[in-house]
Write a structure and sequence with these properties.
six-stranded mixed beta sheet, alpha+beta, 3 helices, single chain, SH3 type barrels, globular
Length: 123
């Protein structure tokens, strides 16, 4: 499955990423696709499904944020549909990104978006 994630080695970059493994307790191992692949899995990073650092495919495009494309693709010319066909994978389901924040008004105001299972909701 593919998604967009903040690169833990470069916190200013949101990158195309691959879910490499689903773990217990809603944790996932992801790999940032812009780096060379390490066969040992040393390039995988652990995120919780509720992490504010992972986003559905297309998040950057919808929000006019630069996306770091996968290795071998030019910035600004990356296309999710083509990439999914090339890799024969799908995007992570939107239900993974269910981020309705009801606990605290401050949390809601400090973020400009949250997700429902079927669509974006902007505040």
């Amino acid at each position: 499955m593919k998604l967009e994630a903040i690169d833990p080695l470069n916190l200013s970059a949101i990158c195309v990423a691959t879910v490499m493994k689903v773990l217990r307790e809603n944790y996932i191992m992801i790999r940032i696709d812009s780096y060379d692949e390490d066969a040992s899995g040393a390039d995988w990073f652990c995120y919780h499904a509720s992490s504010p650092c992972i986003f559905p495919a297309g998040f950057c495009d919808v929000n006019s944020i630069p996306l770091t494309p996968p290795k071998g693709h030019e910035p600004g010319k990356f296309d999710w549909s083509t990439y999914l066909e090339e890799t024969n994978l799908t995007t992570a389901p939107l239900v993974l990104f269910n981020r309705v924040m009801l606990n605290c008004i401050e949390s809601l105001i400090s973020t400009s978006w949250f997700f429902l299972p079927s669509h974006y909701v902007y505040v």
